[in-house]
Amino acid sequence: MAAAGFLVTLAIFLVSSSSFSYAFDDDPLQDFCVAVPDASAVFVNGKICKNPKQVTTDDFLATGFNTPASTNNSLGFGVKVADVNLIPGLNTLGLTVLRVDFEPDGVVPPHMHPRATEVIVVLEGTIYAGFVTSNPTDNTKNKLFAKILKPGDVFVFPIGLVHFQRNVGETKGMGIVAFNSQNPGLITTGNAVFGTDPRIAPEVLTKSFQVDKKVIEYLQSKF
User: Fold this and answer.
1) For 25-185, which CATH class?
2) What is the distance between the alpha carbons of residues 46 and 25, in angstroms, rounded to a whole number?
3) pLDDT of residue 19
4) 103 is in an annotated binding site
5) 217 annotated as a binding-site residue
6) Which end of the chain is more exposed for a tag (fewer CB within 10 A), N or C?
């Protein structure tokens, strides 16, 4: 019985230790695992590794982040992504970096990342940014945490929570964004509700949002 108790205690300790030591992506078991493109294979975490003897410095390099992303769209923002597809050396290291550019009044619409916490460092412009809590257990309203960010400000968006950014300044804006995941995922709220294929039945959304069916059909037509 004492031995069984010890094993149970040890198991609990190991599980607890793992939960403290892991980031949201699994820790690598080697110095690096430079990705090899392989469209024929699907892996649970990361991509297949290049032979370390064939790895070069360029496997850890990306260029072009000094030039703006295209903002020629209806939302007025654009991103450049530095992830494992651009920098193979990021494979298994649990990191993705973006450059985000804003036109005046440009907006990154409400969205969430199911697998990563996000941090933004504002370098140019005046950015209104915020996130919304999950549904409270006491049936009160979801709480908004939002701030006007100036150059040099850093703001955190916790994993899985709906968040947004908008350039409220009169000049263009720019920031650098980092995720603690190789594949943070992206769920844009409007697309997920009104832009699915096939469409969610309007009756479901009419009842859910307590609006006329024509409103739902209009919103679906916009996505």
Assistant:
1) mainly beta
2) 9
3) 44
4) no
5) no
6) N
Q: Which residue type does 120 have?
A: I
pLDDT the model gives residue 43: 63
Q: Is 163 annotated as a binding residue?
A: yes
pLDDT tens track for 133-158: 999 999 899 999 999 999 999 999 99
pLDDT on residue 20: 43
Domain ranges of the chain: 25-185, 187-222
Per the CB < 8 A criterion, the answer to whether 118 and 139 are in contact is: no
Tens digits of per-residue pLDDT, 13-24? 444 444 444 456
Give one word for 174, left, alpha or beta, with left for phi > 0 and alpha for psi -120 to 50.
Answer: beta
Q: Any binding-site annotation on 118? A: yes
Q: Tell me the DSSP string of 63-106.
A: --TTSPPP--STT-EEEEEESTTT-GGGTTS--EEEEEEE-TT-
